[in-house]
Amino acid sequence: MTRHTARTTRATPGKARVVARYSIAAGLKGPRGKTPDEVVLPFGDFETMRDALEDQLDLAEARAIMARLKPEELIPIEVIEAELKGASALRAWRKARGLTLVELAERAGLSQPYLSELERGHKGASSSTLKKLAEALGTVPGNLI
Fold first, then answer.
1. Residues 30, 78 within the same domain
2. At what angle do helices 89-96 and 77-84 cross, to 10 degrees?
3. What DSSP line would sit under 95-106, residue for residue?
4. What residues are paired with 55 via a beta bridge?
5. Band of the pLDDT at 73, cuts 50, 70, 90?
6. How large is the average pLDDT for residues 19-42?
7. 50 burial type by CB count under 10 A (0-12 exposed, 13-18 middle, 19+ buried)
């Protein structure tokens, strides 16, 4: 383990003196087990520490948000990429789930020609049809619109 040390200083105009050395490996405990009130370090090191802390806080927040989401609320990257390329949401979800038109039609209790019309935007789906498709695809109806 690399030992990093910090030191505290007491400065008077024109003078600075080292009061104690602290080891990060020892939890910044100095002489007599005291923790310093202040630590002097190069600004670049401070920025690195600040950035690492911000990254950890962002990661913790993202994990908390992900923990609150239900799996069916998440949108796979394949769906997003396909929709950005112009695919219908229904087709993007079907492809992302690795289903053929026939397989999805069977799971949702629809005919394959009707499903094809929906995917191509030639027909509109009722709310009950969207619910069936969403359930068959493991998502929520709003993701298919």
1. no
2. 140
3. HHTT--HHHHHH
4. none
5. confident
6. 62
7. exposed
Q: Do residues 55 and 89 both lie within one domain?
A: no
C-alpha dihedral, 55 to 57 to 60 to 64, nearest 10°:
-130
CB-CB contact of 4 with 39 (8 Å): no
Domain range for 25: 5-68
How far is residue 141's CA from residue 127's CA, in Å, rounded to a whole number?
A: 8
Rounded distance between C-alpha atoms, residue 133 and residue 90, angstroms: 8
**CA angle, 29 then 31 then 36, to 5°:** 50
* Same domain (yes/no): 88, 137: yes
Digit-coded pLDDT (tens) for 88-142:
999 999 999 999 999 999 999 999 999 999 999 999 999 999 999 999 999 999 9
Do 104 and 135 meet the contact criterion of CB atoms below 8 Å apart? Answer: no
Assessment of whether the complete model's pTM goes beyond 0.85:
no
Strands (E) across the chain are located at 5-12, 15-23
Q: Are 52 and 17 in contact (CB under 8 A)?
A: no
